[in-house]
Amino acid sequence: MISLVLMTSVLILIDPGFSLSSQSSEKSSVAQEQNTRFGGTYANLKPAQRRLVDELYRQYNELTKNNLNQVEDYNDLSLSVRTTFEAVTHALMTSKLTDENGRSLGTALDLVSYLETVHGKIPESRGDLQFRIYVALKPTALQTLENSREFKRGRDNTHYHKGYPINYRQQGGVPSIQISCSEDGQRADIDVDYRSSKFPAAVVNGHLKSANSDVRAGDNYDRHINRWSGFANWWKSIFGVPLKEEDLKDEEIVGKHGDIPPFPRAGKGKPWEAMYDFLNSWLVEQQPNQAVAYISPSAYACIDQVASDEKKKINPGLIPYYILEGMKKVNHSIGKPASLADVTQSIRPNDPALKLIDQPHNAEFEMFETPEDIAFDFECANRNDLPETGQTKKPKRKYGKYYGASLRLKTSETKGAMLLLLWTEESDYWKIVSWNVEPDKISGKNVPNTVNAQAGAEIKLDRITGDPGLIATVQGFFDEWFVKQNFDRAVGYFSSQCLPCLNLYIGQGENIARNWSEGRNMLMDGMKKVSNAVGRKSNFDEAIKSITPVHPLLKLVSHSQEEAFALVGAPNEIASSFECTNQIRDQGQGVKVARKVGRPAVYGNYYGAIFELRVGTPASVGFLWGREKGQWKIIAFSVDLP
Asked: Helix, strand or coil for residue 381?
């Protein structure tokens, strides 16, 4: 499809605030979409979804003495909140549960008593706090999960999902639903995991965390409908305008347009004059060809990313026409407005670094000076660079070169996503050099939140004195890996017990290791790739950073390199669930790990080292250390996405 995604990439917009700072075949996707129902508005929610929204707003109004209308308010929620709610609840309602005899236990959504809140995109926060719903569970929910063939209890959450340590995972591989429950079984954090954790790719790939649970990212939509059919990608439109269902098809949209002019017609005036003409020529005059002239080739990196999400390779010379087709579909969806004010709404940024400009079109869009350092981060070509590796040099804070515009488009039925455009002068003309949907810090409505404050309470772990020999061994291992880069010695810290873990986290298309000799070589090669990603360091704390554990049964070990990695004492029970053979059972073979109830936890035999690389937003890594023939060895490891 010429897409709709395109619009999701032309403007930048964000969730609560704003700061610049399994695949299915194409035919299968089209066939399933014919049975889908257009989404994005309250009116098009399924009855079960609507009941959750109704009850949330009823509780919120009763608690706050407000009188919010759930129909109007839901339609105004940010794009990422609505896509998250609809994707997660759709997966739940289409996942049937059965017992060992095949008798129905209802659907996964039947486990939910009521909705507490929805988290869409939350800038500058951990991945396990984004793209998920928080719910109260029915009293029988955990027992139903235990009795079901479709969900199995896996190893407890140790450093993600704070307050929700009990982990149930849908079987059958990714994508899958993860239900993380509180210890009392009354509440849950539920998300969809669209990606799998691979070594070493996930350890160094900065895209994986943000893409893991966002249905809009990459090919996650295709993954979703391949497992849970009947869900439309209604959000894929330029500038975040929800399209009508008929606009999700590929046929030509007839509209006024001619050739794309070589220069924008109002590009030599003020930046807000160019912004106004860009929007007005596109949306009111319905001449998107005039609007495309404002888009600089510098912004084509944004389109490259969108096209990559759609598995397309576009001739660079044809990118303007790719944009044009998407803009025509928006025209078709919103109709013929009498004025720009009918289809755009100004959104004021709340980042003090963005200096607001008083200009004649403040009602339709805000305009502001943008410093060069923020503009640098915002440009599509720079978004994936990793400053920690020294590949790029960010400019200092300086004003006068860049201007931003923030707004959102709206239709008669609903408001679109919040947007941001970045402008600068090129060859004496004002041009759009970058865009995105949902910038990081623009004011916007949040879903009502009825989460019990106790769920987010700080978990204080006990501190213990660890085995001195173990501490020295762990530090020596990281020193060999990241400082000395003696990979032969570093891989010697691993036990052959890690072989099943290595095959569990193997990259797609790679052959499994048949024995430890092959596994050792594979592991060494992966460690070299990880080390190359961060570069050689004078101290390993420059390469890795600690992740705070959240499981209440873990005990923090005091040591001199706590900024680099967290070292925890793990009771035998938790350590057992991390052993490689049990990790494989948890990943879909249907064998439940035994849990001992009511017995005191035994410590001293196992320790865990938890960390992530200091590049981008990589997956976390956990090494389980145990004694083997009198020596401390890594006997298991895990690669975890939120």
From this structure: helix
Q: How do residues 242-264 score in pLDDT, each as one tens digit?
A: 555 554 443 333 334 457 888 89
Residue 537 lies in a domain: yes
pLDDT-derived band at 5, boundaries 50, 70, 90: very low
What are the DSSP calls for 177-227, one per residue?
EEEEE-TTSSEEEEEEE-S---TTHHHH-TTHHHHSS-TTSTTHHHHHHHH
Q: 278: which 2 tokens?
A: 């860009």
Whether residue 609 is found in the same domain as residue 468: yes
Residue 377 and residue 295: Cα distance in Å, rounded? 19
DSSP single-letter state for residue 589: I
Which among 203-212, 245-254, 255-264, 539-548 has the top mean pLDDT? 539-548
- Neighbour tally for 173: CB within 10 Å: 11
- Report whether pLDDT(304) > 50: yes
Examine the fold and report which residue of 184, 206, 235 is the final residue of a domain before the chain moves on: 235
Domain span holding position 615: 463-640
Provide the domain count of the chain.
3
Is there a contact between 371 and 398 (Cβ–Cβ < 8 Å)? Answer: yes
Q: Which residues of 64-87 are buried (b: 16+ CB within 10 A; e: fewer)?
A: eeeebebeebbbebbbbbbbbbbb
pLDDT digit string (tens) for 620-639?
899 999 999 999 999 999 88
